Amino acid sequence: MNSHSMPHALPLLELDVLKTVVAIAETGNFSSAAEAVLRTPSAVSMQVKKLEDILGRPIFVRDSRSVSLTPDGEVVLQHARRVIALNQDIVSQFITPEVAGVVRLGAPDDVAEQMLPSMLRRFAQSHPCVTVDVVVDYSGRLIERVRNRTLDVTIFTCGARAVERENGEVLKSEPLVWAGAKGGIAHEKRPVPISVWEEGCIWRETSIGALMEAGIEHRIAFQSSHISGQKAAILADLVVAPIPISSLDERMVRLDGKGGLPDLPMHSLAMITADNLSNPAKAAADHLRACFAKPEAARLAARPMERAG
Predict the structure, then answer these.
(1) Residue that finishes a domain, picked among 67, 94, 121
(2) DSSP E strand stretches across the chain
(3) I need a surface site. Which of 60, 161, 204, 239 has the fewest CB within 10 A?
């Protein structure tokens, strides 16, 4: 067989380029992806351009504020994750990881919805032989589970006094704010309809205490232990609700001081661990500390949001 009859060899995609594609998809911009893969933004751009040249079609749509995947990019992302996972499986067959085992982790609902998935995805990449079992519950029960040794580590929502009482470690602090639907009128009603969760919830205690101190008549019109349920009630203009500022989105407005609603204090996300942690649990706790210490976590907490006029 001569060289003219040889089948055309398809190009091979580099693993580092596929890791960059995943990082861009997960962070939503080139700068944060560059930090994640330890490259410069210009190097990341060159990787993407080279990949798009090889494939002959764009995989990202860029605008001034964000980056999103094209339909072809979605296909590339799906295969990239498979290739990276397969690479980890191959290597782990021959190189025994220093850390292996199971970690029992607790988190409140808003953390589980907004922050935890990306943090656990990165932990799985760096610790492929550690399994993390997650329990989502309200903070009081999560703390009790750590005391009972049915959880190794938990994140919980608290005020300053609770951090000291539980001997916790603060991971992040941010304002608790009143949220309402953009253009909504729920905050004008009397009694003010509010959405909170059951006794023991720090958001409930803080918000109702502030309303009572301000002499504002209120009623509990909606109860949900899930941040998604709270948001649904807010967006339907059924209620106003106390939520962390980082949980606000563009469909909501911050109502502090509007309609007499009182300002709410800062609240914290803290972490406690059980005694005599296993090495996998220590690694998970260290990973959470590192994730919350990263600049993007601070930017998320301090994100400016619109106030009602």
Answers:
(1) 94
(2) 60-62, 67-69, 101-107, 130-136, 153-158, 169-181, 192-196, 218-223, 241-244, 252-254, 266-273
(3) 161
pLDDT for the residue numbered 304: 39
Rg (CA), the chain: 23
* Pairing verdict, β 192-196 and 266-273: unpaired
pLDDT band at 25 (very low <50, low <70, confident <90, very high): confident
H-helix segments, 56-138: 71-94, 109-114, 116-126
Q: In this structure, is residue 108 part of a structural domain?
A: yes
Domain that holds residue 138: 101-173+268-301
* CA dist., res. 182 & res. 252, Å (int): 5
Backbone φ and ψ for 303, nearest 5 degrees, come out as -55, 125
Residue 244 is encoded by which pair of tokens? 């962390």
Q: Is residue 195, in this structure, part of any structural domain at all?
A: yes
Number of Cβ within a 10 Å radius of residue 53? 10
Domain endpoint, select from 68, 94, 120: 94
- The whole-model pTM stands at 0.67
